[in-house]
Amino acid sequence: MRKFTTTILLIFPLVMFGQVKFSTATFEEVIKESQKTSKLIFLQFESNGCEKCNEVADKAFEDAGLAKLLQESFVCVKIGPTHPDRELISSLYNIQGFGSFFIDQQKTLLHTYLTTTTRATSYKEQVEIVFNRAGEELRLNEMEKQYNSGEKTPGMLQLILEKRKSLYLQTD
After folding, report:
1. Could you list the residue range(s) of the whole structural domain that residue 65 is in?
2. Is there a domain that residue 14 lies in?
3. What's the total number of domains in the chain?
4. Which H or E run contains 81?
5. If we measure between CA atoms, which residue out of 119, 121, 147 comes closest to residue 59?
6. CA–CA distance from 157 to each of 82, 151, 161 (Å)?
7. Closest CA to 54 of 97, 84, 90
């Protein structure tokens, strides 16, 4: 019995260390923290009626590698059924159910992952998609700066419009 108790006491902190630490802050506080730390935002939007769905995602967030990846690059927020900004966030991003949402410091939705899974690798793949997309947005910002500072050629405008279209941004 003593060995069992000792083993549990040694393992429990390791499991807790690997978990993603989700903030319970308001959406505006999360945006400010994101801007201050230059991190993107990871919203885990929990289901209202499917407790199993929420448990499935929580299982993946116990992975130490995923936890490290998310904590280093994102302000992580879990939006549960009682979160004070749930309705606001739902209306901003037209969220109908549950899933993971990746947002930048300007509140732009970069990517959605509308499922839950126990596989941490699936979430890691989504993070890679977000990093690629965020990099594309940085390139777009640089092209727009060039255009606005005087390089108003038809070719530059075409590049900007194509990039905006590929990122599903307005092209008006």
Report:
1. 20-166
2. no
3. 1
4. none
5. 119
6. 45, 9, 6
7. 97
d(C-alpha 120, C-alpha 122), whole Å: 5
* Domain contains 13: no
Helices vs. strands in the chain: H and E counts, helices first: 7, 4
pLDDT for position 2 = 59
User: Taking the CB of residue 144, how many other CB atoms lie within 10 A of it?
Assistant: 14
**Would you give the distance in Å from CA 149 to the centre of its chain?**
32
d(CA 106, CA 56): 30
Q: Give tens-digit pLDDT for 151-168.
A: 888 888 888 888 787 776
Beta-strand ranges (E) seen in 8-55 are 40-45
In angstroms, the first-to-last Cα distance of the chain is 70
